[in-house]
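writing this on my phone so excuse typos. first protein, seq and then structure
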Amino acid sequence: MKICPFCNAQNKDANNFCIECGESLQLSKRDRMLNAINEKEGSLLSSNQYVRSWSYKDYPEDYKKNLFKHAQAFNLANFVYISDCSMNNNGKEGLIFMTNGFYDHIGPSARSVFIRYRDIKQLKLDSNCLYVETSVETYTFSLDTYGDALKPTLEKLIEIDKTDGSDRIEFSEEKTGKVKGEANFKRRESDYKRADRLLKTLETELRRRSEQFLQDKNRFMKARDEYENLLDEYEAYIEVLENIKSEYQKLKALGGKA
């Protein structure tokens, strides 16, 4: 059964749209995670009055370069959502949720930590703290800072990561633990431009091959039609010959009797 991410209605596996609300059931892993986060969005980092939240769909273009300062391995293709608690809401501090894990960076002098969802062994509440036990070490999050929604949000993201294998070959090589420092944005920007050029080149080549295929297909169809017409002509000719042969046999038989 498919569970609708919008209204939680049960649908048959063959359904592409929900029978209750009509929304598409074919959401990407990224969008499934975004929906899960949005359910609790109001209380993430709720104790900070300067918090502002953005998704990958509406994050300001001017701030994107700041995201690369969190880690050398940061990749926008994995970026889902940020709860930004930096003074100017410019992406330098807060929680950043990715498709394969999340970054934690609180305080101007802090160093970013990345925690992969699949490395999380247990989430445990004790007093006013959430302990995130991983295969590397246990990380402590004060709910006074992060908000009560952190635990249910992480539980949902862990479940989505576990059940959705579409991003198993991921764009990021980041591992659980302290990250390697700031990325070189200009270099990464250059990498993206180079990748974009490569994609455009591949798209052009695919279009060329597609057009060539269609041309070859049309030539093949034309040759096939001509061949089938020729076969029809041969079959008609053979039928005429068979009729002539039959008539000849009859005449020959009459001549023999005479």
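second protein below, same order as before
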Amino acid sequence: MNDAVRQFTVAPDDDGIRVDRWFKRHLPDTSFTIVAKWARTGQLRLDGARVGPGDRVTVGQVLRVPPAEPLRATTRPVRQRAPLSDDEIAFAREMVIHQDAAAFVLNKPPGLATQGGTKTTAHVDGLLDALQFEAEGRPKLVHRLDKDTSGALLVARTARAAAFFSKAFSGRSAKKVYWALVVGVPSIEDGTVDLPIAKQPGTGGEKMHVDEAEGQPSRSRYRVIERAGNHAAWVELQPFTGRTHQLRVHMAAIGHPIVGDGKYGGAAAFLTGGISRKMHLHARRIRVDHPDGDKIDVTAALPTHFAESLKSLGFDEALGDNMPADTRPPPSREEKKAKARAHAKTVRKARRGERRGRGTERD
């Protein structure tokens, strides 16, 4: 056990984060309870002053940390990640389609999960050690793609970049464009689906559904790129919110499930004529501000099965990237209601002013 007081200088990547978050990054074996106790008893200091778990640190400040407390006998050992094989390292690096000091963009293949879970041992997160290169920290995921969805996936290379990109995704300033094949052809070629989504009861959270009463607000835009008669269409999709399985749920809800999505479209989600039964949903393009003030704008090539389906249906892949520039997202229901309330309030004020004006008129 180390009985010495420890001192740490706040690094640039940690500028602005909370004290408890700093401990989670750098001293993960120190529980929040211990950090709170140190703060409460005045043992935790930042540049000599008392500091709490929720306070924020600034680059260059010195954090004084008490000696490590002995671990209890019941503490579970930290599970170490198994080293990657040469094939896994090569596979991870082959996915990289953009690289700079702050980020990677990967072209995730269909069938590979983004993160691990029950019975899921192969996933992008487990391969990120292959992309550490000369950096001190391990790359970090900042958003997800469904296991069977392919395409552009952004990975941050530093903790500071991860915080920056996470804010962009949560604030919806990051733009994502998807391509999909859907069953049938929407009657409106450029439309918005505004339907709330919630976890479907009885599925353990594994499946979502439209729930007008309890669902979270969810909006998606679709635009038809090409159509194959009346039995299939190639569409561009944009999620304006980030709900689980949002695009899949919305397209199925309007009667046009994504080809290969049996989970939400059932048997009707599969086409005949040699079209692959795999999911035809691809994150084609990602655009997001860069921490250094520039922009990341990356396009991901289609997986083989999707490209072959387009060709089989007689679609010209070049048409997809020549769609008109996307517009601002249409107002949501809540925004429309707020605008209506504001308008009504303005009208009421104007009428009150008119009545007062009439009362003061003289002949």
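The CA atoms of residues 142 and 165 lie 7 Å apart. thats all i got for now
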